[in-house]
Amino acid sequence: MFVRSFRLRLLIGVVLGAMGLLAITHLATVLFLHQYRVVLHGRSAAVIAAIALAALVFGLAQIRRGLSPFDRLRARLSAVRDGGDRRIEGSYPTEIQPLVNDLNGLLEHREGIVRRAVAKAGDLAHGLKTPLALLAQEADRAERNGDGDSAVSIRQQVEKMRRQIDYHLAHARAAGSGAAPGARASVAASAEGLARTLARLHADRALAIRVDVPADHVFRGEIEDLDEMLGNLLDNACKWAKSAVAISSSREEAALVITVDDDGPGLPPSLWEEVLRRGVRADEAAPGSGFGLAIVRD
Fold first, then answer.
1. What does the pLDDT average to over 146-166?
2. pTM of the predicted model as reported, rounded to 2 decimal places
3. How many Cα atoms occupy the beta-carbon half-sphere of 87 within 13 Å?
4. How far apart are CA 167 and CA 276, in angstroms?
5. Closest CA to 71 of 5, 135, 121
6. Of 232, 242, 157, which Cα lies nearest the Cα of 194?
7. How many CB atoms lie within 10 A of CB 239?
8. What is the Cα 275 distance to its own chain's centre?
């Protein structure tokens, strides 16, 4: 017989064991009564039956209590997976506690690896930005010395390298964004803060930026990652909007859907996939690096 459920296996084992023990006990009782010519009265039989029933109920209650730590462990793991907790909390029986300790150790180790990798990417980006700043100064010096063509060429390459650094740094952060269990960020707080900032930046156009996000909607990740995504989308929306931008969120089954919309001309369907590629811009005349949507996608 193939049974996958541990609970069912344990219950079957207990029932079969109880049946065997009952048969042995019954046989021993019959032999004892027969050997010593003992007559079992109805009241005595009722007492024995009541004791047997009580023992059965108590045994089943103990089985249920013994299995309850597995239910708690599953609930805690679900909370870690869903971002509610960073670690598996609680005290467990001696047979389960080593497993819980190992799982928490694995979570800490994974989080540490990703944190160090992201920090290294940041250090690398910071180390490269200083030489790029020096190159930009060389371009200014070349322009002052009358070598305009060289200055333009240097500036183009410097800007290209800066865009690459920004993209790969954001990509490294995106790769590690799900590695910190329990990280949660309020969508409403992030959206409202960005809306206020962009409204000030575009004050001369009198853009209306409306935020319609329930207070209980949270993003499972770091606030910096949410700000990065919403900031890129809102920046695009504000560039192309005629007068209004809207941010909203809704739940669709297990997913949280955040929508950024504007009343601008929109993007032709033929370009939808194209603009998600890094370095691609829908309009070369508009300011931007062409990496924003690619960063959001990652």
1. 80
2. 0.51
3. 12
4. 13
5. 5
6. 232
7. 15
8. 26
